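Task card 7
Instruction: Convert sequence to structure tokens.
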Amino acid sequence: MINVNHPKPYLNKKEVAELFSLDARTITNWMNEKTIPYKVLPNGHPRFIRKEVMRILNDANQKMYDPKQKHF
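Output:
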């Protein structure tokens, strides 16, 4: 489990997947669909800006629990 309050500004794909409770392949799909912003390091590994990931996660949680939205 990752520390959400850690000062590290970037997350790797595994850390993002853990935050969203998803498989890393889903994060790869999001990258391919341009759903989540990321940067590629010189070694080819993607990194995700922590603040952006947390914003997306918070937005998703707000939509999920919005009492004005109808749930079927």
